[in-house]
Design brief:
- The strands form four sheets. A six-stranded antiparallel sheet has the order 1-2-3-4-6-5. The chain has a two-stranded antiparallel sheet with strand order 7-8.
- It is α+β, with helices and mostly antiparallel strands and 275 residues long.
- It starts with 21 loop residues before the first strand and ends with a helix.
- The chain has two domains: 10-164, 2-Layer Sandwich (Phosphorylase Kinase, domain 1), CATH 3.30.200.20; 170-274, Orthogonal Bundle (Transferase(Phosphotransferase), domain 1), CATH 1.10.510.10.
- A hairpin with a 2-residue loop joins strand 7 and strand 8.
- It is built from six helices and twelve strands.
- It is 32% helix and 21% strand.
- Bound molecules: adenosine-5'-diphosphate and magnesium ion.
Length: 275
């Protein structure tokens, strides 16, 4: 048998093509379970030739930072802007500083993902990755159940890419900063109660629900920040978390002028969870 080099083609991408703050889209590098519900929504760019460009930081937090990322196909008008939530870990501290991106990052991160999936010792050491994975699973489960959460695009180690929730083309503000009209206030409460009911029927509570973890996309609310979703049936502390969620929500709505009661809400949700 003779060796014919022309029969081999390599699907390589020359690294020199991406600038600092850019990388090739990682969508197809991650394993299927690390990609969101299929088929993806039509706005999502899934082209293999897509390039991710860092647009900057949206919010810094205690455990994670949220960045804006553009995923676009060079030379076309196909593009979308995503929210990249990155849990802090030594590996990600210099994430957007060039070389880390291009040098073997894909391999390392999909190894992280596999390890976390399998719950190996190595995986257990990757604490930030575990938070990311926990939030990833919650987003997928709740999105599938019709709860208003951002569409989960993909997870790669400590980074979750998700739909950027917007209002008027800009990142949506948090509910905490809003002063809705009485009608909108009532509608907002109904939306949150419905979302909490769906969670309760699934046997879980958000665990850190507050007007800071709810975004106002015009007249629609979207719930975010879900790494700590708690089981309210199996976890003895679950009902306490649920009560705290109810109190945070009702306190804010009351302060805005809507007469709602956390005990009533809690009883209704608990009945759903144990019913
Ligand atoms: N999908 C998203 N779309 C728009 N803004 C987002 C999104 N995810 C997070 N943010 C913004 O980033 C902030 C921090 O995100 P969050 O998930 O609450 O993380 P943290 O654990 O730091 O509180 C949010 O308050 C919100 O302003
Ligand atoms: Mg938050």
């Amino acid at each position: 048998m003779t060796y014919d080099a022309t029969r081999f083609t390599f699907d390589y991408q020359p690294l020199a093509d991406v600038a600092e703050g850019q990388r090739f889209s990682t969508y197809w590098d991650v394993e299927p379970l690390s990609r969101g519900p299929q088929p993806p929504p039509s706005w999502l760019v899934t082209d293999r030739a897509a390039v991710d460009t860092e647009l900057g930081i949206l919010k810094t937090g205690k455990e994670a930072d949220v960045f804006l990322l553009e995923r676009a196909v060079p030379g076309s008008d196909e593009s979308c802007i995503l929210a990249a939530k990155r849990y802090r870990s030594p590996e990600h501290r210099n994430f957007h500083r060039s070389a880390v991106y291009t040098e073997g990052r894909r391999g390392r991160n999909s190894r992280d993902t596999r390890a976390v999936n399998k719950g190996t010792t190595f995986g257990r050491q990757v604490a930030a990755g575990q938070w990311a994975w926990a939030e990833w699973e919650s987003l997928n489960r709740l999105y599938g159940a019709g709860v208003p959460v951002p569409y989960p695009v993909q997870v790669d180690g400590t980074e979750i890419l998700m739909e950027l929730v917007t209002d008027d083309q800009a990142p949506a503000p948090r509910l905490a900063a809003q002063r809705p009209s009485p009608d909108l206030l009532r509608s907002y409460f109904t939306q949150i109660r419905d979302a909490m009911s769906t969670l309760a029927l699934l046997g879980v509570a958000h665990g850190d629900l507050s007007p800071y973890n709810i975004l106002a996309a015009g007249d629609r609310l979207v719930i975010i920040d879900l790494p700590q979703v708690v089981d309210i049936v199996a976890n003895p502390a679950g009902p306490e978390f649920l009560m705290r969620d109810c109190r945070n929500i009702c306190t804010w709505f009351r302060a805005r002028g809507l007469e709602v009661d956390e005990q009533d809400l809690f009883s209704e949700l608990i009945a759903g969870a144990f019913g």
